[in-house]
Amino acid sequence: MSTAFVLGVRARADTVRLVPDGAPAMMIRVEMPEVWDVVRFAVAPTTPVAELKLRALEELLPDAEHPEDFVFKLRGWEVLEEEAPLAEVGVQEGSILLLTSRRKKPVRLGVGGKRTA
Prior knowledge:
- The chain is an alpha/beta fold.
- The protein has one domain (3-113): Phosphatidylinositol 3-kinase Catalytic Subunit, Chain A, domain 1 (Ubiquitin-like (UB roll)).
- Helix content is 15%, strand content 26%.
- The protein contains two helices and six strands.
- It has a six-stranded mixed sheet with strand order 1-3-2-6-4-5.
- A hairpin with a 2-residue loop joins strand 4 and strand 5.
- It starts with a helix and ends in a 16-residue tail after the last strand.
């Protein structure tokens, strides 16, 4: 798949820039299943993972009080080194990062097997 396709599918119209205008940047996506939303970011390869995580939480879940309760996953694996630059942990042009809760919340089933929470 092309980077343009990956970045254009079901995402907000705007792109959040973490680099100055005109500076070289790579385009990535951050998806958050808890809110069913996707944001595109223009970032430098040297941007720390923690900085991107905080900005993504501001965009996707502004009332999140504890950023440490959320993790990034890249290609299914948790990104453990949050102080490392994005490029160092394997993020590249067109990458998709999943931002999700560190602890899974139980799903309760109600009458007829329907989810209630």
